[in-house]
Amino acid sequence: MIIFPEDKVAVIIPTYNESSSIDILLKRIYKILPHAKIFIVDDSMLTENKKLKEKTKNSRVKVISRMQKLGRGSAVMVGFREALKDKDIKYFFEMDADLSHLPAEFPIFFEKIKKENADLVIGSRYLDGSATIDWPKWRIIMSKLANLYLNILLNLKLTDYTDGFRLYTRNAVEFLTKEKFKTSGFILLSESSYKLRLNKFVITEVPIHFVDRKYGKSSMGPRELFYSLFGILKVRFIK
Fold first, then answer.
1. Which CATH architecture best describes the domain 6-237?
2. Shortest CA distance to 15 belongs to which of 124, 53, 230?
3. Domain ranges in the chain?
4. Average pLDDT over residues 132-152
């Protein structure tokens, strides 16, 4: 059995109006990784940001407040750069704050990254053994169509390009933080995977149980999805 080096793990959490769920998520994380260091990058306005800070008072939690909605992708990169300052951190989880991702599944990511000597493990909603729980059918259809499009365009042979439950090695994170990206928001997940694969990093997937959010409201809609998927054309065809 592989022992999880929990004192060498950072968890990066981008947030936007997530104060209702953040304390629940932190408890779940610390149940599995009691010594992990958590970096929250919050794009909420002042009132919501204050609420979040009140619920995250812990010496191992750092809140980075941006006070404007600058996008999920850039928030994660800010968190990565901050976490990299700690030379002891070797592994970097990325996850959502809305309780869609289950910290109880952390160990399967680590087992996979060690077993396959991978640089990135993506939590997939569409591998055998995965499940999407309480997600509206229209969201599932939209997500599957987006992933089909991305697989045709980027050809990485992944089942899930757009889920933000991921585990990276330090080498992969150091590489990504030095790169310039053509996209922002959630679609940066796809661009970052593409950049890693082009540079010979090893990417693999594990099945996860994805639970629809119980708190707050998703900022993802058809309009944002369309512009994000259109923007990925720049990644593929513009040098």
1. Alpha-Beta Complex (3.90)
2. 53
3. 6-237
4. 91
Q: Is 67 left (phi over 0), alpha (psi -120 to 50) or beta?
A: left
Task: Give the pLDDT confidence of 76-97 residue by residue, as tens digits.
Answer: 999 999 999 999 999 999 999 9
Tens of pLDDT, residue by residue over 177-209, are 999 999 888 889 999 999 999 999 999 999 999
By the 10 Å C-beta count (0-12 exposed, 13-18 middle, 19+ buried), 175 is classed as: middle
Whole-angstrom distance, CA of residue 177 vs CA of residue 145: 29
Whole-number Cα distances in Å, 141 to 136, 145, 222: 9, 6, 12
Phi, psi at 110, each rounded to 5°: -70, -40
How far apart (Å, rounded) are the C-alpha atoms in residues 27 and 25? 5
pTM of the model: 0.94
